[in-house]
Amino acid sequence: MSAIRLVMLGPPGSGKGTQAKFISRDNNIPQISTGDLLRAAINKDTEIGRRANEYMNTGNLVPDDIVLQLLKERLTQEDCQAGFILDGYPRNIIQAHDLEKICDIDLVINIDVDQGLIIERITGRRTCKKCEAIFHVKYHQPQREGICDKCGGPLYQREDDTEETVKKRLITYKNETIPLIEYYNQKKKLRTLVSDGTIEDMRQKVTHLLSTTFSF
To answer: What is the CATH number of the domain that holds 203?
Structure first.
């Protein structure tokens, strides 16, 4: 089987993280989030973790060179030899250039979603205060309103799930990531899939794309 080295792009609420999990399970390759790498380095109290924590404690973004170093170390691990999925990285052209210094990317999957649908998806999310399970007022309702099915904890709307915050996040995404989409399109590595149905509908689109792109 060919190695599957993927980048997932898509605005907040596009479901790219969910689809990345499906790809990871179906193909036995890791889903890699730079946020998770940073948190792991901080929890392990490594030198690079301490450097990253200094920036995060002051509310500043962790410099790209620190993130790239963590990513480079992660991609050398054995479970990445058959491929990997980068979820949330790169976020801009500079990071895309940095990524090319440490690995080749075979395919970039861009999930395109109508803005109105994104707002509906995110503002309808409700999160459990105890176990952080996620529900939705329309698409994934709990058995009892306001109560988590898994642990019985109370459900609430996170501050970053309000409509005002979502719109700001979409503006940031457009300013940073739209040029990145064009960058990968020019390299003929981009494939855009429109998400206008259920999660399973999107899963089938992604599965079809991968089966026609890679040799299984």
So the answer is: 3.40.50.300
